[in-house]
């Protein structure tokens, strides 16, 4: 997950993402990783379709997690 941390840190350094505590980065990365890796498995095990709209829903879940940390564009 080091590559994801480095990628995420670029957004923090660019001022796109604001963190109150450094520990938030690991929590956000872990949450996003869990969704991105297990969302389709969750759908399949729940008997739900794994179509494009559900993939978009997974992306929306990740964005919902990140939204409170995004800074407003100038």
* Shape estimate: elongated
Q: How many discrete domains?
A: 1
Q: In which range does the helix fraction lie?
A: 55-70%
Number of strands: 0
Strand residues, percent = under 5%
Order of helices and strands: HHH
Mean pLDDT: 93
- Tally of alpha and pi helices: 3
Largest sheet: none
Q: Could you tell me the radius of gyration in angstroms?
A: 14 Å
Unreliable runs, pLDDT <50, ≥5 residues? Answer: none
For the terminal residues, how far apart are their CA atoms? 30 Å
What does this structure look like?
The longest helix is centred in the middle third of the chain and has 23 residues. By secondary structure, this protein is mainly alpha-helical. 68% of the residues lie in helices and 0% in strands. The termini are far apart. It has one domain.
Topology readout:
Elements: H1 2-13, H2 23-45, H3 52-66
Please supply descriptive tags for the structure shown above.
0% strand, 74 residues
Nutshell version of this structure?
It is built from 3 helices and no strands.
């Amino acid at each position: 997950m080091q590559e994801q941390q480095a990628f995420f840190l670029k957004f923090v350094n660019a001022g796109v993402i604001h963190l109150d505590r450094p520990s938030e980065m690991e929590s956000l990365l872990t949450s996003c990783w869990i969704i991105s890796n297990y969302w389709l498995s969750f759908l399949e095990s729940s008997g739900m379709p794994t179509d494009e709209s559900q993939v978009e829903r997974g992306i929306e879940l990740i964005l919902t997690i990140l939204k409170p940390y995004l800074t407003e564009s100038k």
